[in-house]
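[STRUCTURE TOKENS]
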Amino acid sequence: MSSSTPGSQEPEPSDGLKAFGAALKSFRKRAGYTQETLAPEIGYSTHFIASIEQGRRFPPPRFVDQAEATLDAFGTLRLMVNQLSRQRGLATWFRRWAQLEQEAVTLYTYECRLIPGLLQTPAYAERLFANQLPPLGDEQIQAQLAARVERQKLLTDRPNTSYSFILEEHLFLRNMGGAEVTRGVIDHVLQLANRRNIEVQIMPLVKESHAGLDGPMQLLETPDNKWFAYNEGQESGLIISDPKVVSMLQMRYARMRSQALSLEDSVSLLERMRGA
């Protein structure tokens, strides 16, 4: 099972992930591929394949399907991946959405309650878990932290995915975890905003009305250009596939992008808040 310590960059590989990686490596060599020659055949980078073989990443469904077909693995890889317990540390209602995120080509997030999980620092996330009610044990906190750090690899391991975040200004003014934690979050968000595939916009604190007043939302586009939405409440989450509803939420998100501060003004605001 995955475990981690505060500030670590990735969880320890589980026995299941290491076993899957070893099997993949064995089938790859049996088929006469190196990591470099297999990469273009299955549509994943050499680094991604290496991470899977080392047990440092959970293999997404499309990766497994492509590897099965290319390496003629007799269904072994599919069988093994079904036995993995990578989902430890993720809320049960969130697991399906987390799987969809693994392959998303576009991911939009609007949040008005707390810094989104993909943008959190370990210190911020650990404080959230420590304050949870009913209280969590140390092992549970570390499992959730490890799962969050693992999920955040999406931002760096998928450079061709387009990420957009619209965040309410008050999320940074809440000072959750104290001034030092908040400065760390702002620094982290500013660093991510420098990446070509990540856009961060701030919704000003003073705004008479905007299109997101009905609450947080996430939208994603799959490789076959299908769109899904996700709404989450306390102890529940809902994946929305109805095209009419998804289209409505896309319309609202598009309006919010025009109502929030521009990318440049958002960065400028965060820099001012960081220096305060």
